[in-house]
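Possible regression after last week's pipeline update?

I re-ran a chain I had predicted before the update to compare outputs. Posting the input and the new output here so someone can diff against the archived version. Not blocking, just want to make sure nothing changed silently.
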Amino acid sequence: MGRMDMLGTFFKNDENSLHPIWWGARWRFKAHAEEMFWRWMCSWSRAMRRPSDMGFDDDGFILPPLETNEHIVKCDRPFNGEMFVKHAVTMQEQREERKITLKARCEKITELVKGKKQSLIWCHLNTEGDYLEKIIPDSKQIKGASPDEVKEETFLAFQKGELKRLITKPKIGAFGLNFQNCSHVTFFPSHSFEQYYQGVRRCWRYGQKNKVVVDIITTEGELGVLKNLQRKAAAAENMFKMIVKYINDELKIERKITDTMKAEVPAWM
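New output (post-update):
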């Protein structure tokens, strides 16, 4: 089944061309097709999150608890050219909101890391990283421009517990590194669920012995970004749940030609 066949079989397009900024193309399940879609997914894919998904014991697999806290920073300054404070809707407004609230968000992180043995601090902008490094004691930032030797030295120092506060971007350090020595993570939300998931998993992984606390810092104007991130997290959770639900079901796929029209041939044949 090709992409367009799959979309036409299981989904309905709710595109609203009158509001391209807020809506755009949206696909949703047809009322009768959701269960069939997940069964079709199980015909060519496999997924598991824990041994019990395949009928085995989860002993030794379950990680320590994960606690997620949301902190909303109030923005008192309107966008340029605006009289009142409003929620950021477009990408341009979201970028402006981040610049306006940069100091308030970073100072909130300073409060949250106090008293923590170690903290992994994720940021997205160079200005965020520079200001965080300036105001947080015992911190060091890894930038994209940092020499490879400095990056390696800093990562190892944090991994060994010699560095208390590591500041970096998800696109630099959120993939493949092991920081189970740290149990506190701070995050500025973005639209990328993959970056958030990987950023948290650097600490919430095998070898972690303590409860992991994740503090998400955002603003009133960027609540839409946080809600979008939460929507993607819920969709990912549901995907695994549904695939695991049907993965062990008996499945039979028949491929046959259903043409019933008799071919006409010339009389002389």
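Follow-up from reviewer: compared with the archived run. Residues 66-228 form a domain with the Rossmann fold fold (CATH 3.40.50.300). Marking as no regression found.
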